[in-house]
Amino acid sequence: KWKTAEEVAALIRSLPVEEQPKQLIVTRKGLLDPLEVQLVDFPNISIRASELQLPFQAAMKVEKLGDMILRATEPQMVLFNLYDEWLKTISSYTAFSRLILILRALHVNPDKSKLILRPDKTVITHEHHIWPSMSDEDWIKIETQLRDLILNDYGKKNNVNVSSLTSSEVRDIILGMEISAPSLQRQQAAEIEKQQQEQQQLTAVTTKTQNVHGEDIIVTTTSQFEQQTF
């Protein structure tokens, strides 16, 4: 961790002032003290801790990076842009989400992830890129497949019905945060809610009555078709 802090400080010192970060987020609390010591000359850079288990080590499963490490004969600092040229067409938030999806999927199942990222030989990776070159529409399809791969793996390992997970739990799983497994009761509630959304059928009920004057009154009401309540 001290070596990591030294390398981070060396990288920041090598950058022009306008390119130096305003904030650093560490993914291991043990790095806080070493970084604060190494960055004492940079009082304007705030250092924040997080409990996210981000799978950056999965990047080593990318052939381009793995081969470079295997061929290395001496220590050296190498900079890579893990966003390739994504920021030309998408926001930094979307780019970060896509990167974490890729890395988490590579961490969960490297072989399946690589097949998703490169389904056939027509998909190429430019020499100066890390990831395959695709349109934003194709990336959306791939992100969905990677998300399903991650969630299915989580569901099998924790005996959880994936469809019962909330959107915030899905996000936490992908980011690597610890979450408690959904209770059986909540899973059942989620399944009922899903059934109701799928059915979305309206049943019309027509009632004919007479008032005190002998006039016919016809009333038609509609309600959601429900087979179960929770």
Automatic annotation (TrEMBL):
Residue stretches making up the PRP8 domain: 1-152
Highest taxon of source: Eukaryota
GO molecular function, one term: U2 snRNA binding
GO cellular component annotations of the record: catalytic step 2 spliceosome; U5 snRNP
Transmembrane portions of the chain: none
Entry's Gene Ontology BP terms: spliceosomal tri-snRNP complex assembly
Entry-linked PANTHER family: PRE-MRNA SPLICING FACTOR PRP8 (PTHR11140), PRE-MRNA-PROCESSING-SPLICING FACTOR 8 (PTHR11140:SF0)
Protein name: PRP8 domain-containing protein
Organism of origin: Photinus pyralis
